[in-house]
Write a structure and sequence with these properties.
Layout lengths: L4 E2 L5 H10 L2 E8 L2 E8 L1 E2 L5 E7 L3 H8 L2 E7 L7 H4 L1 E12 L6 H11 L4 H4 L4 E15 L3 E5 L4
Parallel strand pairs: 1-9
Antiparallel strand pairs: 2-3, 2-6, 4-5, 5-8, 6-7, 7-8, 8-9
Length: 156
């Protein structure tokens, strides 16, 4: 197995571009010890180490995060063409998720960040059953093609 390389500065602009240009990612949670994936809209907080999502309170993803805060995220640039074998890349993140209720003092601040990047999701963000999922990312991994992998350390 190829060892993970350390972060190289030339990759960071591509990652920031990817995080800021995508509108969806895959959120993985745990249910009875098994991973479950959820396609989610998200927003990045300014420091790029917090990911914000909205959901309805009574969903499997919310109950999963309430039971286990360990989550992972996946973004990619797949096109469905053979070029992906060498030029495709995916960014994964590991972190902890917290469910923020509307009564949380920072809820409106985080909800506004989410809405700034997801202007068509006001119905979800303003719903009485809506909650915010706040993910603190602990580490990122970038894989390019099938051979190059990098563990990324973001500045604090």
């Amino acid at each position: 197995m190829k060892e993970t390389k350390t972060h190289k500065a030339e990759h960071q602009p591509d990652l920031i571009t990817l995080l800021n240009s995508q509108v969806q990612c895959v959120l993985a949670t745990l249910f009875n010890g098994q991973p479950q994936q959820h396609l989610m809209a998200y927003a990045c907080a300014a420091e790029q180490s917090s990911i914000l999502m909205m959901s309805f309170q009574h969903t499997r993803k919310v109950s999963n995060i309430s039971a286990s805060q360990n989550v992972s995220l996946l973004w990619d640039n797949r096109t469905g063409n053979c070029q992906d074998h060498t030029e495709g890349w995916c960014l994964s993140a590991q972190g902890n998720g917290v469910i923020r209720q509307p009564s949380d003092p920072n809820y409106d601040f985080f909800r506004q960040i989410f809405l700034t990047q997801n202007t068509n999701l006001h119905g979800l963000a303003n719903h009485t059953d809506g909650v915010l999922i706040h993910i603190t990312v602990e580490q990122f991994f970038l894989t390019i093609g099938y051979q190059d992998s990098y563990q990324l350390h973001w500045p604090s």
